[in-house]
Amino acid sequence: MKAIIFSDSLPKNKTKGNYIDFSGKQAKSNKNPEIEVIELSTLYNIFGQEWLEQFSVWLGQLNCEHAGLYWWAHTATAKNLLSTPLAQYYFQVRAVCEIAKQDNTSDLYVLGATPAQMIAIALLLPAGEFQFLGKSWRLRGWKGFVNSIKALVKQWLQFGSVLVGFLMYRTPQNLGKPELCLFTYMDGVRREGVDNYFGKLPALLRENHKFDSILYLAYVYRPYWKRLKGLKNESGGESYLALYGLLKITDYTWSLWKTLGEWWSNSYGRKEISSCIDGYSAILKEVFVNETGGYFHNLLVYKAVCRFVTRCTPKTIAYPFENKSLEKMILLGVNKATQRIKMVGYQHTSVTPKHITLLFIPGEAALTPLPDKIITVGEITKNYLETLGNYPPEIFIKGGALRQVWNERLPRQHGKSICVLLALSSSKQELIQSIEFFKEVMQHIPGLKLGIRPHINFSLSLLPRGLALWVSEHALDLSNTLLQDNLNWCTVTAYVSSTVALEALMRGKPTVNFSIGDVVSSDPLVGRVPFHWQVYNPIEMAKILIQVNKMQMDDYEENSLQAVAYAKNYLSPINKMSLKNFSEVLQ
Question: pLDDT tens digits, residue range 211-225?
């Protein structure tokens, strides 16, 4: 009988066996040659797409079965692979079960599994063929209890934080009668007169069409005092209203009471989430417990929107469309209005194979709160969602990219050295693994010049000391520099998931997407993409970089022009026709 041993760390004695490290931290510190750490990325390359589709079907079926306010308020129900760890937990469990079933596998050590993952693995593997051992397995009940108490404490802190944050903020009594309300997010640096999601849309609509009254309704992120101060000082000529400023103390207490009820039900209740018994329900309940803060905020959004539509009834409300749980709360809240309000989603950014939150299984869309129309940034995303998304017919309208500014195509940089712009986004993991990837690439191209453009939320200061030292000696830090200068400098843009790839194609520059072992690609370039390559290891990357650098001028120019045409199809420039589409849909 095979044994699955659950632990939090590598053994101190020389214990032979196969090890799977969910955290990735233990494997890097392993110096024992008798310990074989299995890389899950190999399995992800083989089964990733299949598992992703099965995950989407599983959660889509649950969405159909449980559709309703208190279900949609859970962040994990949106199938977002980044906002919750549900998908990661699911894929890790699938990988362990796949490895354990192989005939040549000896005892298997699993490091860093959550209590629910241990239970799921035990339920999914054939009974009688495996025994489950280890300190973590014996203490799984205690660990689950501790985690649930931590989640409860965090929930009370969330409650106190938002209550104090909006204690002194009050919305005006008279909100007027705006024709159009634009729901947006105040979550970072703002430019005067330019919204982070809708750009200069209000000014463009007033200039070209009849929109006399436009109001911004803002979901404000922490730190609340700083964001609210910025909202008061907004000088772009637009009226901004903080959503939570509409709430009353009864709304806070109601949302807290419902959240605590869900916490108790998922922590200690015996009610099954799914009508069919499966091991993954344990994972989902664990995620529900740990995301109580998101659940609480989603209920606050619902209550605030209910308050808004009773005090102010605009003809149309538009919001950035990502099919998040928060958006479903907006739509359900608007349904409480006494008058009909037209709802419009704006698909404001790129789409990737990872964005399964934008895709439905057959029948799911009919049970999901959706807007009346969805305006896309271009033809490519419109076609992608219409083809794969299972949306209602004729819901999509081609609009344009409100946030992008189009500039001239950049000339080719001539020189012996290959200059690579490494554009990063998404996570600390992507930052570290991408730089490790290029350390190996530079062994194959010694003269390569590497410029690293980190995401604003994942700076180079997050790098381990040794890797940070290597960057300081072998690469350029392009933090806080102009993207236009970066693109003008580089020969090629390399990336995992960054939308800088689209910006590069807009300027006629070649792009190379590379894999760091994700379950599924995060590449925002979909369909047939010119001047674009995809590689899976450093050797392939080195070959492509050399190939691009040696490309004949005529071939380069032809590919460069095709890249610009693709980008214009993806992120359509704002012109009279696109503005007309916006105007007609929003009226």
Answer: 888 999 999 998 898
d(CA 216, CA 182): 5
What is the chain's mean pLDDT, rounded? 91
| The predicted structure's pLDDT at residue 190 | 66
Do residues 160 and 253 make contact, with C-beta atoms less than 8 angstroms apart?
Answer: no
H runs (alpha helix) in 178-316: 201-208, 224-232, 249-268, 280-290, 292-311
Question: Which pair of tokens denotes residue 194?
Answer: 């330019």
Task: Say if 163 falls within a structural domain.
Answer: no
Measured CA to CA in angstroms, residue 243 lies from 55, 191, 297 at distances of: 34, 20, 11
C-alpha to C-alpha distance for 35 and 570, rounded to whole angstroms: 48
| Confidence tier at 233 by pLDDT (50, 70, 90) | low
- Torsional sign, CA 448, 453, 457, 462: positive
Do the Cβ atoms of 262 and 288 come closer than 8 Å? yes
Q: If DSSP codes are grouped into helix, strand and coil, which group holds residue 138? A: helix
Neighbouring residues of 396: CB distance < 8 A, sequence distance ≥ 6: 373, 374, 375, 376, 382, 385, 386
Given a contact cutoff of 8 angstroms between Cβ atoms, the answer to whether 282 and 123 are in contact is yes
Q: Is residue 560 part of a domain?
A: yes
- DSSP lists the bridge partners of residue 476 as 451
- Using a 10 angstrom Cβ sphere, with 0-12 exposed, 13-18 middle and 19 or more buried, the burial of residue 232 is exposed
Are both 380 and 466 inside the same structural domain? no
Interval 512-555: pLDDT, tens: 999 998 888 889 999 899 999 999 999 999 999 999 999 999 99
Give the integer Cα–Cα distance in Å for 428 and 394: 39
Confidence at 319, pLDDT banded by 50, 70, 90: very high
Q: How many domains does the chain have?
A: 3
Instruction: Assess contact for 514 and 494: CB atoms under 8 A.
Output: yes
Q: Are 39 and 18 contacting, i.e. CB atoms less than 8 angstroms apart? A: no
Q: Where is 144: in which H helix or E strand?
A: helix 140-165
Q: Which residues contact 479 (CB under 8 A, 6 or more apart)?
A: 452, 453, 454, 459, 460
401 and 425 assigned to the same domain: no
